[in-house]
Amino acid sequence: MNRRRRSSKQETPKQKLRKNTTFRMNVLFFTIFLLFSSLVLRLGYLQIVKGEDYKRVIERTEEISVNTSVPRGRIYDRTGQILVGNEPKRAITYTKKQSTKTDEMLEVARGLSALIEKDPEDVTQRDKKDFWILLNKDEAYDRVSDKEKKAINSDETKSKTERQRELDSLVRDKITEADLEAMSPEEVEVLAIYREMTSGYNYSPQIIKSGDVTPEEYARVSERLHELPGVNTTTDWERVRNSELAILGQTTTPKEGLPGDDLQYYLARGYSRNDRVGKSFIEKQYESVLQGQKTIAKNITDKAGNVLETVPVQEGQPGKDLVLSIDSELQKKAEEVVSRHVLSIKNGRNSQMFDRIFFVMMDPNNGEILSMVGKQAIRNKETGKYEVYDRTFGTYQDAYEAGSTIKMATILAGYQHGGATVGQTMIDAPMHFRGTPPKRSLFNWYNSIPVNDITAITRSSNVYMWKIAIGIGGGSYVPNGPLSIDSQAIDRFRHSFASFGLGVETGIDLPDEAAGQHPSNPSSSNVLDFAIGQYDTYTTMQLAQYVSTIANGGYRVAPRVVKEIREPSPDGKKLGPIATELPAKYLNRVSNSDNQIERMKQGMYTVYYDRRGTAYSTFSDTEGYKAAGKTGTAERRYYEADRKDPWFGKPTVNVSHVGFAPYEDPEIAYAVLAPNVSSNTNSIPHPNNEIAREMTDFYFELKEQRIKSGEAGANIEGALKESEDGTVIREGEGE
Amino acid sequence: MKLNNRPSDRFDWTLAFILLLFLIVSTVAIASAQTTGQYNINFVPSQIQWYVVGAAIIAVMMYFDPEQYKKAAWIIYGGGVFLLFMLFILPEGMELVARRNNAKSWFHLPGLGSIQPAEFMKTFYIIGAARLITMHNENNLNRTPQTDLLLLAKIMGLLIVPLFFIMKQPDLGTALVFIAITAALILVSGITWKIIVPLYAGTAAFGAILIWMAVYMQDFLVKTFGFSAYQFARIYSWLDPYAYPSDEGRHLITSLNAIGSGMIGGKGFQGREVYVPEAHTDFIFAIIGEDWGFIGASLVISLYFVLIYHLTRTTLQLKDPFSTYVCTGIIAMITFHVFQNVGMTIQLLPITGIPLPLISYGGSSIMGNMLALGLVFSMKFHHRTYMFSADPEE
């Protein structure tokens, strides 16, 4: 019915369908138009908007850096003595190209094996199998039955490469010992060479033989280079160290290659996988300076990707040399002194928990480290005797409670936060708090003795420090009253201490520095411990920075082992011109007046020269110079060892020493830290004071000696002077 | 209406001219692709040969008129299915059957080369489907949703047979072409919007959800529907080829580098810098984009658009429903090929192995397309015959 009425509008079903079809064809055509438009839009985005990016991508993949084995930078000490250098070695290299075929490489390996001897010691069983397959391809694959091949190929859940791998491993299994035995020694030598050739990366020369290349081999290969495409005779540089100093650090060998942990880091910076890189200490920290610049070359290829020629875009440059702030002679002496003390204490009584001592000496004015030493006694399992090992890194990585050496910082914090004023006298008498045993200064067990800020340092008054702590905490001492210190006191203390470098990283130019432990939410009693250096832990380097800050009048300067960076030396003996002079890095000025710092210096002077001073016995008789310092003893418990250790948790003592000299115009600041020196708190050895004295004496002797021989200036650091033509001469400078 | 009596007037010169342009584009692009020396053959002369063969096919096709195709539709369709069936059952070891790129899609004819039956099956399917729709519409002049549903079911039945064999080869790209052809035919067959809109929207939503799930709910798909994780690689390497540099991902990256670096003007004939695998066949568009830039690539797309426009105009001129449906199927087939092939080179669609019609090198592809266009030539040529019979009878 319905339809009838519509057809009365003179439209037959056929016409209607026709009209409908036309409309729908237009819908289809419009859809097609939209689809094609999206193609053009997308093309426009790729080619017009992003075109430049893609162009750059292509260009980048074409440029390659060629490993030209530039010599790594040398390392000198502050007097110009070479500590780490390079020795040239004859080397035979092979450079693979992207288009190099296996057969070509095999042929080159055969050619080389006739010319050089190659030790096949690194060749593995697996290498031999692969090589056998390579030589007898058809036979090898025929050993796998068609059925087995089909079984592998029909497994569609695996990708093509996975299937190929499976087949290869099956082929490898079919190779017998007898097959491998049948290989002649000559073939194994070819394999040893071939193996080195394939382990390289495209366009990166791979060392086939280095070090033990005889002049004859070198000559033979050099004559026939044109017959051996990709082979080259060249110079490889081997790192040679003339110093035992551990902080110089180590480099990887080309065989080790880039360290796995940082592989991506180095690859992203254009290193090849077989590059030599610094893996510890100075070699690591100054990697970018020492490494040098490889030749960057661009390959000109034909349309099929064959390299026609390689054009250098940027020539390679050898690595820059480093001049350390370390004084070799001083360092040698310090190592000897510290080692001696480590051994004598370890072999003495009560030394169960003891094993190490640290020493740092630096220039307080610019942070240059003259000497840094860490020594550790380790028992030789075979002889049963103790031997001394290097632990230099412990000077900035191992942290311990330092004891009273930090008392100057406590008083200076007191000046800052209102716990003490300059010249303020307080009574040192045993303090009684409710519920705790009386707390005393070591020098005064029963009396009431008035002390001021200076004598508090001279005699190392604990009570003076505790009263400051209570003052900073906003309380006051009531005998037999409760001990209650504001929780903000510790934050104020730590903030002040940090401005001296205590409890924070010092900013030394060596990797992985530690800041020490700062437990949170300390109790009131812990704050008292903090004030006498028995709560937070500090590294020896921090102590040295702290005493430098006092010595130079309040400037915290970052310690550093590298003094300057120089252009590569022309002959390996003379220093090259300065490339970068590294200026002293001042981190902050402490919030104390010059007068307040001067008071502390005076206090430290009395420690050495006042009869009541704690280091009077060791320092009162200094000849030719006056110094100032502070001793420290921290009582603690031994937690470093394993829980099963019988000494775990037992009481022990750390001793420390900080100081500077000469008193009037400081040239050196030094710190000694010897943890766990005795298990008997009534019988404590004092290597801290002895080492400090021996080293200051030696420093001034050395200085005297150098002035006499005209070798160095009045200041020991003035050893090197620039001459007009950029090379270096040593210059005497009379006082 | 003026009658076209002379054969030369009835011949579709415009379409022939468009095909000549494609021949030029194809040979130049293939010549430009041959820079790597990967194959030792020059593909240009053989591509011209295929075009000559294609012209012969068109001539033969023009000899018969649409009425004859319509009558023989079931035989043609059945023959195509038979070929696919043979390919399916014949064991792989036989000389006659060739497996390439991991798909059993080829007959190897000694002395003649290889042919891919699926390329021709597309056209055969179009003829069959056109006949089916024509007959259905003639028998059901009074359309109701029920008759429309019946038509839909018939079309689906016709589709499912070849689709099954092609999926078994497996050849996802060609299977998608069949689906695209069917979608266009359903649209034009007159089935009510009430069915079409939910059907298309539902399919689109289903596809989108599947892709979304492949990215975010992989475990669910693996556990519930038994997908294998490696099947998602195609999706991942499409969405983020830099993070999934599988074979396909790398292929896409090289293609993008080639096309992108072509910028506006391109690098000129054989100026390519990026090595793109299969540059003379499936990835020929990457060559066009790199060597002739945005301008050249857009011109090629426009040339396809002109072809589609011409075919659409022809379709609208043809009053006969059978011819209309055949043309629609051919339009859909060419459109999908172009959109899919170009789309995959520019990261608009995932990579599937289907050629760019009339430009990619390949005998089966050229012959298959010429077969389809031969039908159009034939319909145009014999159009006069239907002037009267197609007119309204009432």
Automatic annotation (TrEMBL), chain A:
Q: Which residues form the Penicillin-binding protein transpeptidase domain?
A: 358-694
Q: What is this protein called?
A: Cell division protein FtsI/penicillin-binding protein 2
Q: Which UniProt keywords apply?
A: Cell cycle, Cell division, Cell membrane, Cell shape, Cell wall biogenesis/degradation, Membrane, Peptidoglycan synthesis, Transmembrane, Transmembrane helix
Location relative to the cell: Cell membrane; Membrane
What are the GO cellular component annotations? plasma membrane
Residue intervals of the Penicillin-binding protein dimerisation domain: 69-310
Return the Basic and acidic residues bias intervals: 719-735
The family assignment reads:
Belongs to the transpeptidase family.
Q: How does it sit in the membrane?
A: Single-pass membrane protein
| Region (Disordered) residue spans | 145-165, 713-735
What SUPFAM superfamilies does the record tag this protein with?
A: beta-lactamase/transpeptidase-like, Penicillin binding protein dimerisation domain
Under PANTHER family, the record lists: PEPTIDOGLYCAN D,D-TRANSPEPTIDASE (PTHR30627), PEPTIDOGLYCAN D,D-TRANSPEPTIDASE MRDA (PTHR30627:SF2)
Q: Where's it mainly located?
A: membrane
> What domain of life does the native source organism fall in?
Bacteria
**Annotated GO biological process:** cell division; cell wall organization; peptidoglycan biosynthetic process; regulation of cell shape
Q: Which GO molecular-function terms appear in the entry?
A: penicillin binding; peptidoglycan L,D-transpeptidase activity
UniProtKB/TrEMBL annotation, chain B:
Report the subcellular localization: Membrane
Q: Does the keyword DNA-binding apply?
A: no
Which GO biological process categories is it annotated with? cell division; regulation of cell shape
The primary location reported for this protein is: membrane
Is Transmembrane a UniProt keyword of this protein? yes
Q: Which GO terms describe its molecular function?
A: lipid-linked peptidoglycan transporter activity
Q: Which PANTHER family match?
A: CELL CYCLE PROTEIN, PEPTIDOGLYCAN GLYCOSYLTRANSFERASE MRDB
Stated name of the protein: Rod shape determining protein RodA
Q: Which organism is it from?
A: Bhargavaea ginsengi
Organism lineage: Bacteria, Bacillati, Bacillota, Bacilli, Bacillales
